[in-house]
Structures are given as C-alpha cells and as structure tokens.
Design goal:
Layout (H helix, E strand, L loop, with lengths): L1 H16 L3 H5 L3 E2 L11 E4 L10 H14 L6 E7 L2 E6 L1 H15 L17 E5 L11 H19 L3 E5 L7 H13 L2 H6 L1 H18 L1 H15 L3 H24 L14 H13 L3 E3 L5 E4 L9 E5 L7 H16 L3 E7 L3 H13 L8 E6 L2 E2 L2 E2 L2 E2 L3 H18 L9 H18 L7 E2 L2 H4 L7 H18 L15 H11 L1 H11 L3 H20 L7 H25 L8
Parallel strand pairs: 5-6, 5-10, 10-11, 12-15
Antiparallel strand pairs: 1-2, 2-4, 3-4, 7-8, 8-9, 13-14
The structure holds arginine.
C-alpha cells in the first residue's frame, strides 16, 4: 500500500524527468515521523535517480522543470522541492483510508505483501540455532543463538519461505565418556528423571574433577568414549538414555520461550557420516596426514600449510569441523535448501570460514548459499544462583523479577495467570534488551534496565499492547469496516499512520541485514505514537461515529504492533 503512493509519485516524476518510474520508485522513501512537528510523507533525492551527478546546469534545469510542472492530484496534495530533495504529502483522507484498509485486509501479513519485498528470493531456508551441549553449561551465547535464530526463522517464514529449524545439539564427545564412566558412582536415576540437564551437569562436573586426580577414572572415561565411538550396544544405550531425557527437558524449556525445532540432529548423528567425509577428502587428495598421524586440510592457496584445519585425530576419529562438513553435505542432499543460516557467537567465525572453504574444495556449490550470522558477547547476565548455567534459570529470573515489579506497581491489573503473564513480559524484556543494538556488538546486560516499564524496553511494548487490547475489549469494536475518514485527521492519528506507512521499508532493511534492531526501534516508535494517540483520541465521550473510527484505528496499531512483536519472538499479552 505504501507502494501505491510510491508508484503514483514515481509516475508523475517520471513523466517530467524522462526517467522510467521503475528506476524512481525504489528511491521514494517514507519519511520517519518526527514527534515534535508534522512532516510530509515521502521523499526522493533527485541525485539518486538522475545520471551524471556532477553536471550542475543539468540539475538546475531538471529541478526547475519539476517545480513548474508538478501538480497536486487526487493522490498527492502537496510537493516541496529544496536543494534537490523532493518531499511529498499525500491526500489525507486517502492516506487514512488506504493504510487502514490494507492493514485490515492483510492482518499479520501487513508489510510482507509489499512489492518492495518482491526481489527477495523465496524458497527453503534452513536455520540452525541454539545448539547447546548436553551436560555442559547453557551459556549466554546459547541464549543469544536461541533468540536470534528464532527471530531469523520467523522473519524468513513471514517473508514467504519454507523454514526448517534445526537444533544441532552437542550430543557427542568427551563429556559422554566421563558421564558413562562416572554415572554409576555419582549419578542418580531419580534425579535424572526429574531434572536431566541439571543432574547431568552436576555429574559431569564431579566426574571431571575426579578424573583430574584419579588416573583410573580418566582411563575409564576414555574407554567409554572408545566404546561409544565403536557403537558398543551398552554404551550406546546409556548415551541414548541421557540424550533422550535431555531433549525432553530442553523442549519443555524452549516451549516457555515459544520456540520449537523441526529437528534435533546433533553432532552424534554425523559420527559415521564424518568417516565418509574423510574418505571423500582422501579420494580427492585433500587430506594430508601429519607426522603425528593427524589428518589436516591445507587451507592456503599456495599449499604451504601455513593455515590448515585438523579434521581427523591420530586414532582416526572425527572432530567438530569434520562433523560440520558431514552435516552440511547431508542437509544439502536431504533438504536441497535454497539457503542455510548458522547462528553462533563471533568466536566461531573462523570455524565457519574454514568449514565453507572445505565445502568449496569439495565442490559443494551450495556453500555459496550458506551464511554464518554471528553475534557479540554479553557481560553481566547473572541470576541469583550466579552465572547462567541453564536456560531455565534465566527464564525463572526474568519471571520472578517481573512478578515483583508487577506487585509493586499499582497500575497493574490483577490478571488470572500472573506467573504466565510475568514470564511473557520478562522474556520480552530479555529479547528487546538483546536486540536493541547491532548483533555483532558486545554489550553489558542489566536486569533493572531491561525491566523498566518506560523507556525502550520489552515491558513497554507489552504494556502498550495490553493497553490497546483492553481498550478494544472494553468497547467491543464492531466488525463494520466502513468508518468516516474525516474522524481521523488529528495530528496524532496522521503521525501514526505515516509511521505505519514505513513498515515495509523497515521489514525490507531487517530482512536484508538480518538485524532485529531496525524492527525494535520501529516498534518503540509505534508504541510511543500509540500512547500519545491513546491520550488524545478518547473513545469515551465521543460520538458513535468518532468512537467507531478511533477503535478501528487503535486496532490497526495493535495488529502491527503484535505482528512485529511476534516476529521478534515475543508473545504479546492482553492484560498486565
Ligand atoms: N554446540 C556448539 C557450541 O556450543 C554450537 C554449534 C554451532 N553449530 C555448528 N554447526 N557448529 O559451541
């Protein structure tokens, strides 16, 4: 719908300048709303559509032509032209009608149906995220991968792709050797059943400490790992038991976050397939065996081995990167994806560069469609128990802090499920705090800051959504779509609709760069505008005609706010 206006503007300008409107339309942008004063709706820098930017006389001539010949019509009500910047104000009643109608028609798809997004290829996107390691800490890096990956998957899905969500669990390796060797001594089946993740971690820590002092324990851990590697049935059955219970519990915690995976295909799944990778590397003469008996791949152009990746231990077993090569090839074959996105912290950047290089050497062309989205480190995310060890702890912390805040605030309405509401708000706070900045940047996390109810926080977004929702429930909007557009001409209504006009551009940028901060700051802007409108455009005491139009207007805001929040991974609450 914003495209409807862009097109109309482009067509007029095109006729005067003699440049095709296709070339112009991409440069017509909605103007960000200024909360202090009213502004035009669209802008176009002439420099972006005219060739030969150095020719001043040429420019002057075009500008004069434009200012002489641009005319107001049924779509455009006013043009402004200063120093090569064209600004356009569109017909007010038409703006109200078009924006509201489109949002009503598209609902949660609003923004994604825009022509602006038509250039993005659609197909199958595989997103791999979260990927914690069983029996080890679920650290903040895993938390970030979980919420960022979920956001990317949501966004790609909304943009019309089929999305496969994969959790590449760390479910193989020495920690299982230790668990296998020490569980009979330090473990407890009942505890395992009630809280697998916590118990396995405790046992792992104990066996690890024991193995450092006790050579026998160390030996038996290695022995157990060997058994596992060779597929010994008893070892495998214990490992399966640990793994199954862990996955069950992960799934429960992910559910609290509103996150689901299509597949838990962890590293263990690629144990045998990584032997095929080693054979393939051998057959292509890419595998070099060192003096120590390890297998490496030379990553240099000139073959001097100044950069290499170790893909095989001297006992013939695979490493992290070998399993990643196997997993990538397997996914290429199994899904024939159009793109694959890996989400981890930036410490794994060189790992993924090496992985992509090896895949290229193996002539796996799809590697060009693989992307590593990386993010920075977080400091200061502590829970009452100390550092983050389990995802559950972070969620409990967010919930209990939020419950406390809700109890303190008098404005809070008593809800039926305070715990559930507190959790949804707490998670929103966490997500917004994390998504506010550039993903690659490191930042310091602060609970008090994240949980403030005013300011740019997830709590504020939830609060705004709940307020709109209760207004709509209170007045019970009628389904009657027609409303009088002249009832929505106040500055606060117009500013909000102008902001809604820009949604597709924000989605475009967010998709292009896979950076949630554009969407976050847009939603903050929408929240502020909604609150201003809420204060000035009363429903109570208005005539039926005005009340009807205003309720429609508030519902329009609510739909876009809720849909943006859901993309971020937030479940909007109706009451708080
Ligand atoms: N489990 C790994 C870790 O905790 C992350 C896995 C990332 N994905 C991958 N395909 N290597 O560091």
């Amino acid at each position: 719908m914003a495209c409807y206006f862009r097109r109309a503007i482009a067509e007029q300008v095109s006729q005067i300048l003699g440049v095709t409107s296709e070339k112009i339309i991409d440069h017509v942008h909605a103007i960000p709303v200024n909360r202090k004063r009213s502004s035009p709706d669209f802008r176009l820098f002439l420099k972006s559509v005219l060739d030969d930017p150095a020719d001043a006389a040429f420019y002057q001539e075009k500008i004069e032509k434009l200012s002489d010949r641009l005319v107001a019509d049924s779509v455009v009500s006013n043009f402004g032209l200063t120093r090569g910047l064209l600004t356009v104000t569109v017909n007010r009643p038409l703006l109200v009608k078009k924006v509201m109608h489109k949002i009503r028609q598209d609902g949660f798809r609003y923004g994604f149906t825009s022509e602006l997004l038509s250039g993005f290829p659609k197909g199958l996107t595989l997103v791999e995220y979260s990927s914690p390691n069983i029996a080890k800490k679920f650290h903040v890096g895993h938390l970030r991968s979980t919420i960022i990956g979920n956001f990317i998957a949501n966004l790609k899905e909304a943009a019309g792709n089929k999305v496969v969500r994969v959790n590449y669990l760390g479910d193989w390796g020495l920690q299982f050797g230790l668990l296998g060797a020490g569980f009979s001594k330090f473990g407890c089946e009942d505890k395992l059943k009630t809280n697998a993740l916590q118990h396995l971690f405790e046992v792992y820590v104990k066996v690890n400490a024991a193995a450092e002092k006790d050579e026998e324990m160390k030996q038996s851990a290695q022995e157990f790992l060997r058994k596992l590697e060779s597929g010994h049935p008893q070892a495998i059955s214990l490992w399966t038991h640990f793994r199954d219970l862990s996955i069950e519990e992960y799934a429960k915690v992910y559910k609290r976050l509103g996150i689901k995976f299509d597949e838990y295909a962890g590293e263990s799944f690629y144990r045998e397939k990584s032997q095929d990778v080693l054979n393939l590397l051998r057959s292509k003469n890419i595998l070099k065996i060192t003096k120590e008996g390890t297998g490496v791949v030379d990553l240099t152009e000139n073959g001097d081995l100044s950069a290499f990746a170790t893909v095989m231990r001297s006992d013939g077993t695979s490493l992290y990167i070998t399993r990643d090569v196997a997993a990538a090839i397997d996914r290429m074959e199994k899904y024939n994806f159009d793109e694959m996105v890996y989400v981890t912290d930036k410490s794994q950047q060189s790992h993924f560069q090496n992985l992509f290089k090896i895949l290229k050497m193996l002539e796996k062309d799809k590697v060009d469609r693989c992307q590593h989205v990386n993010f920075g480190r977080v400091q200061g995310m502590q829970t009452r128990r100390g550092d983050v060890i389990f995802l559950e702890d972070v969620l409990d912390e967010a919930r209990s802090r939020m419950l406390q805040n809700m109890a303190k605030a008098q404005t809070s309405k008593t809800t039926e499920y305070p715990e559930d509401t507190a959790e949804k708000i707490g998670v929103a706070a966490l997500i917004v705090q994390d998504f506010k900045g550039q993903l690659q940047a490191d930042y310091r996390f602060n609970w008090d800051e994240a949980l403030q109810s005013c300011g740019d926080t997830g709590v504020f977004l939830q609060y705004t959504h709940a307020r709109l929702q209760s207004l709509l429930t209170l007045w019970n909007t009628s389904e009657e779509e027609d409303f009088n557009v002249s009832c929505l001409q106040e500055p606060s209504a117009i500013a909000t609709l102008q902001h809604l006009l820009r949604y597709d551009e924000v989605i475009y940028k967010t998709l292009k760069e896979l950076q949630p901060r554009y969407l976050v700051s847009y939603l903050m802007g929408l929240g502020h505008l909604a609150n201003v409108a809420h204060h000035s455009l009363h429903v109570k005491g208005s005539t039926q005609e005005v009340a009807h139009a205003r309720l429609h207007f508030f519902n329009t805001i609510r739909v876009v706010l809720a849909s943006g929040m859901k993309l971020l991974g937030i479940t909007p609450v109706d009451k708080m």
